[in-house]
């Protein structure tokens, strides 16, 4: 079983991804680090710990990380996931502040990757890439022991979701993304080109057997499904992060192609845009096709274990 560290900004779809990863029993989640994105890093850690509490997996460590991007900007405030990131679900779960190891994410990434250097560690990153970039800056030698970084981020052939050019996670810290892309780590990018094609709807959620879990998934996704209906006329919601986790569990869900990537940085209007460059060797694979039916199958298999 692969050793995995998840790096998240929990968020509705991060929460679904965490639930899938842990319940699948097909990957070994060593720990979860959080970063500012959908909400602040500390709030994301509290949300993550609450999800773990719900799953009765309180032994998995949660560590909050950077509250700002590599340029030092506060990057929260999308409000897409409600004020607390989970639309108030699990609001009655009390989490002690000392349970979230505040500010220790980067240190944890370095320590844990080195502790597991014989087996290697896979990273699943469904948030801005600030924590990994800071870890690589502080300890560049860790890159030799990262088996793969599976990243939800970017848009290649399709428009972005925060600007016409950029996807949220990359846009919020393109300097971090650029550092990660140029690190030499084996990377798979699960981009909007495929995540825009997978919709989770109420029929899928109704197939969750465990009543408590069905209730939790409904309560976090229902406001989202309503927003998608009002804004885009879609019956259901996009599941960027769960699709990324599903790919870590079953590699046949997404087809990729190897390519080089340039990221637009700084204050350019195209900030956060991915530009594909087919020139020479690369260790980056970018998603090109997705099997949405297989995703649904894996999603339900994980949740119904
Ligand atoms: Ca996320």
From TrEMBL:
Gene3D superfamilies: Ribonucleoside hydrolase-like. InterPro entries: Inosine/uridine_hydrolase_dom, IUNH, Ribo_hydro-like. Keywords: Glycosidase, Hydrolase. GO terms for molecular function: purine nucleosidase activity. One of its GO terms (cellular component) is cytosol. Residues 4-296 form the Inosine/uridine-preferring nucleoside hydrolase domain. One of its GO terms (biological process) is purine nucleoside catabolic process. This is Purine nucleosidase.
């Amino acid at each position: 079983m692969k050793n995995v560290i998840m790096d998240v900004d929990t968020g509705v779809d991060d929460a679904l991804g965490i639930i899938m990863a842990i319940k699948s029993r097909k990957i070994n989640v060593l720990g979860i680090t959080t970063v500012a994105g959908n909400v602040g890093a500390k709030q994301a850690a509290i949300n993550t710990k609450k999800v773990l509490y719900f799953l009765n997996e309180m032994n998995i460590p949660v560590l909050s990380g950077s509250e700002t991007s590599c340029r030092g900007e506060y990057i929260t405030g999308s409000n897409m996931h409600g004020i607390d990131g989970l639309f108030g679900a699990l609001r009655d779960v009390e989490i002690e502040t000392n349970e979230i190891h505040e500010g220790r994410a980067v240190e944890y990434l370095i320590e844990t990757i080195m502790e597991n250097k014989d087996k290697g560690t896979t990273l699943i990153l469904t948030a801005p890439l600030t924590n990994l970039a800071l870890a690589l800056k502080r300890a560049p030698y860790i890159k030799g022991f990262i088996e793969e970084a599976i990243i939800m981020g970017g848009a290649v052939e399709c428009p972005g979701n925060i600007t016409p050019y950029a996807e949220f996670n990359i846009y919020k810290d393109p300097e971090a993304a650029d550092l990660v892309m140029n690190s030499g780590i084996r990377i798979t990018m699960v981009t909007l080109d495929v995540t825009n094609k997978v919709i989770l709807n109420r029929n899928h959620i109704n197939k969750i057997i465990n009543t408590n879990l069905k209730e939790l998934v409904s309560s976090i996704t229902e406001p989202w499904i309503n927003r998608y209906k009002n804004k885009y006329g879609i019956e259901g919601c996009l599941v960027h992060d769960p699709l990324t986790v599903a790919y870590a569990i079953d590699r046949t869900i997404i087809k990729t192609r190897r390519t080089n990537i340039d990221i637009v940085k700084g204050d350019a209007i195209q900030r956060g845009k991915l530009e594909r460059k087919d020139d020479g060797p690369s260790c980056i694979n970018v998603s090109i096709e997705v099997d949405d039916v297989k995703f649904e199958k894996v999603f339900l298999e994980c949740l119904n274990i």
